[in-house]
Amino acid sequence: MNNLNIIRVVSLLILSIFAPAASADDALPKTAEKFEVNGHTTYLYAAPKPAPGKPWLWYAPTLKGFSLAGRKVYFEEFLRAGISLAGVDLGEVRGAPASTEQFTLFYDEMVKRGWSPKPILLGQSRGGLMALGWAMRHPDKTQAFVGIYPVCNLATWGMKNLPVTLADYKLTEAELRARLTEFNPLDNLKGLIEKKVPMFIVQGDADKAVPYQENALILKERYEAGGAPITLKLIAGEGHQATPAFFECRELIEFVLRQAEAKAR
């Protein structure tokens, strides 16, 4: 075999090695499918090969786009595992009954389109209030909750940006404060505990924007007291930021994959 033929053979071998990986990357959706639900824009990244049961990860907050799509590790791992990603843009909501019902319309549309009736919810930061606000009212429809430094406590964080919160609840400050236990996810865990909906949270112990002591820690203590499964992974020295500790977390990925597999059984 002359040198030219050797070069050709080597080139073909190299192409054969890397072609499958390139094809897998090319198969992932580059842009979201968009559709309207009661006037609100939904963003859907459908897995090219959905896992059994068509599991999906419902991400909040989804605001003028789907920011989780920019988190390469999560985006690729979940889609390749057959887990679709979706969210709906309701703007700055805080888990009020009316906005939660708008989330339910989105949920109903996803189920109508063939996706699992028990999504995995992922709430990042203030998305925690959105996701938990829906989950506490629909524990039978919630496969699991995942939090990335999530807001869990309406009574503390939810009252800091008061105009936004009051606009969502359509109440005066006095009315909302008088009914906080009715609306606060931390006071409405009974249904999720009874269903033993699994939870996983990753957060930094130096988070000043959403202090874990007022949010995830209380959730963990109350959830465990009820005998339900929850893991809180605290990262030493990390704050409220977009670092690999939060967006390349292997434990979070493995938790989501297990929940998708559990739904299929």
What does this structure look like?
By secondary structure, the protein is α/β, with parallel strands linked by helices. It has 2 domains: 1-28, no CATH class; 31-264, Rossmann fold (3-Layer(aba) Sandwich), CATH 3.40.50. 43% of the residues lie in helices and 16% in strands. The chain contains 11 helices and 8 strands. The protein has helices spanning 3-27, 72-80, 97-112, 127-137, 162-169, 173-178, 180-183, 190-194, 216-225, 244-247, 250-264, and strands at residues 33-37, 40-45, 56-60, 84-88, 120-124, 144-148, 199-204, 230-235. Strands 1-2-4-3-5-6-7-8 form an 8-stranded mixed β-sheet, with helices on both faces. Helix 4 links the parallel strand 5 (120-124) and strand 6 (144-148). The protein starts with a helix and ends with a helix.
Descriptive labels:
11 helices; single chain; disordered N terminus; 265 residues; 16% strand; Rossmann fold
Topology:
Layout: H1 3-27, E1 33-37, E2 40-45, E3 56-60, H2 72-80, E4 84-88, H3 97-112, E5 120-124, H4 127-137, E6 144-148, H5 162-169, H6 173-178, H7 180-183, H8 190-194, E7 199-204, H9 216-225, E8 230-235, H10 244-247, H11 250-264
Parallel strand pairs: 3-4, 3-5, 5-6, 6-7, 7-8
Antiparallel strand pairs: 1-2, 2-4
